[in-house]
Design a protein that fits this description.
Layout (H helix, E strand, L loop, with lengths): L1 H24 L12 H18 L13 H12 L1 H4 L8 H4 L8 H4 L5 H10 L15 H13 L5 H8 L8 H9 L1 H4 L19 H12 L8 H5 L4 H12 L19 H14 L32 H13 L11 H7 L2 H13 L16
GO molecular function: electron transfer activity; heme binding; metal ion binding
Keywords: Electron transport, Heme, Iron, Metal-binding, Transport
Pfam families: Cytochrome_CBB3
C-alpha cells in the first residue's frame, strides 16, 4: 500500500513538472486562427450552458409583450451587439468572424435559451468568449428589452430591422445628422420617441438639463447600459449641439396617452391625488411640491431640472423607483431626489406618474401657483 502511494506521488510530481515545462516553454499555441480543439470547444460550451442554467434560476421574467419593447431592444442591439453577431439579414462582420470562439449567429442560437437565461447572459456576459457584461450593473430594467428582441429575432426580416434602427433625416445639418445617428432610433428625430413608453420625450426639454444628463451618462455618473455607450465619445460641443437640437423641437400638443396599471376605475382619483401632490406636496411626510423645481410650463422653474409634463407614466414611475433604490445616478442635483423618493408610497408614485403623463396645459395659461387647493 505504501509502495503504491509512493508511486502515485511520484507520478503526480512528474505530471506537475511536465505541465510546468509545457507552460513555461510556450509550446501550446494561443492563436485564434486555429480555433479550439473539438474537446476544448465541447468542454467550454457544456460548462457555459450548465453555469447559465444554474445561475439564472429564480430570475423573474416580466411581461415582454409590451408595445415597442422589442424595438428598444433592437436599437440597443444595433448600437452594442451587431458588430460581433450581425443582425437579421445582415452578415456577421469579418473581424468578429475571426474570433475564437466565434460569436454565434443569434437568430439560431437564441432558440436554445430560456428568457431568464438570455437575461443572465446579456447582463453578465461570458468569460473566455469575448462576450462583455452590461455596461452597468444597476439597471436590470434595461436588459429586458434586449431579451424581448432576441426572443423575437428569428421572425424579423432585414427590412423589419432596418425600419426600426435606421432613421434618415431630411435636415442635413450637422446636429440633425448626429441626432439621427446617435438618438433617433429610440427618441425619433423630433425627440418624441419611437421605442415606447420606456423612452423619454426630449422635445422642448430644457437645454441645461439635456446637457447635464448627457454629460452624466458620458462620465458614468448616471447609470445606463443603453445611454452610456451612446454618450461615451461625445465631447462637450456635440453634447451642447444635441441638447439645443432637441430643446428646439416642439413638444407634443397632446401629451400622455399612457395606459394605467391596475384598475382603470382609479384613473380620475389618481389624477387628482397626483395633481394635489405635485402642486402642494405632502406636509405630513415633509414632501415638497414637485412644481417648486419641475415647473409645469417653460420657461418657469429650474432650467437644469427636467420638465415632467408629457413624459409617459411608465418612464416617470421607473425614474422614481430608481431614485428609491439608488440605481439611477445622475448629475450634481440627482441626490436631492433621494430623500423625496424614499418618502413616496407606491400609490403616490402611481398618482404622480398619472398626473404628469395626462395633464394638458394651454400654452397661454400662466404657470400655476403651489398654493393649497380646496
Amino acid at each position: 500500500m505504501k509502495r503504491r502511494l509512493k508511486e502515485l506521488s511520484i507520478l503526480i510530481v512528474c505530471l506537475a513538472l511536465l505541465g510546468a515545462v509545457v507552460l513555461v516553454s510556450g509550446v501550446v499555441p494561443i492563436k485564434a486562427s486555429s480555433g479550439h480543439w473539438a474537446i476544448t470547444r465541447w468542454v467550454l460550451d457544456f460548462a457555459s450552458s450548465r453555469s447559465v442554467s444554474f445561475h439564472s434560476r429564480g430570475i423573474q421574467v416580466p411581461k415582454l409583450d409590451q408595445p415597442s419593447i422589442a424595438d428598444l431592444g433592437a436599437a440597443t442591439f444595433d448600437n452594442n451587439c451587431r458588430w460581433c453577431h450581425g443582425a437579421p439579414g445582415i452578415a456577421q462582420p469579418p473581424v468578429a468572424a475571426g474570433m475564437t470562439p466565434r460569436p454565434p449567429r443569434l437568430s439560431e442560437a437564441v432558440q436554445q435559451w430560456e428568457e431568464a437565461e438570455l437575461f443572465y447572459i446579456v447582463k453578465h456576459g461570458i468569460k473566455f468568449a469575448g462576450m462583455p457584461a452590461w455596461a452597468t450593473g444597476q439597471r436590470d430594467d434595461e436588459v429586458w428589452p434586449v431579451v424581448a428582441f432576441l426572443r423575437d429575432m428569428p421572425s424579423w426580416t432585414e427590412q423589419d430591422y432596418r425600419d426600426v434602427v435606421q432613421v434618415d433625416p431630411s435636415d442635413t445639418s450637422e446636429r440633425a445628422v448626429l441626432a439621427a445617428q446617435r438618438c433617433a432610433a429610440c427618441h425619433g428625430l423630433s425627440g418624441g420617441g419611437r421605442a415606447g413608453s420606456r423612452v423619454p420625450d426630449l422635445a422642448g426639454q430644457h437645454v441645461d438639463y439635456l446637457s447635464a444628463a448627457l454629460r452624466a451618462y458620458r462620465d458614468g455618473k448616471r447609470f445606463s447600459g443603453i445611454m452610456q455607450p451612446v454618450a461615451a465619445d461625445l465631447d462637450d460641443e456635440k453634447i451642447a449641439g444635441l441638447a439645443e437640437y432637441f430643446a428646439a423641437q416642439p413638444r407634443s400638443e397632446n401629451p400622455g396617452s399612457e395606459t394605467l396599471r391596475g384598475d382603470a376605475g382609479r384613473e380620475d382619483s389618481q389624477f387628482q391625488v397626483g395633481k394635489n401632490l405635485a402642486r402642494n406636496g405632502d406636509q405630513n411626510k415633509k414632501i415638497p411640491s414637485c412644481i417648486d423645481c419641475h415647473a409645469l410650463q417653460p420657461p418657469a422653474g429650474h432650467q437644469d431640472y427636467p420638465m415632467l409634463v408629457g413624459l409617459s407614466a411608465d418612464y416617470i414611475r421607473r425614474q422614481l423607483e430608481l431614485f428609491q433604490s439608488r440605481s439611477r445616478g445622475g448629475s450634481e442635483h440627482a441626490n436631492l431626489m433621494h430623500p423625496i423618493a424614499d418618502k413616496l408610497s407606491n400609490d403616490q408614485i402611481e398618482a404622480l406618474a398619472t398626473y404628469y403623463s395626462q395633464v394638458k396645459l394651454d400654452p397661454g395659461d400662466p404657470p400655476p401657483s403651489n398654493a393649497p387647493e380646496d
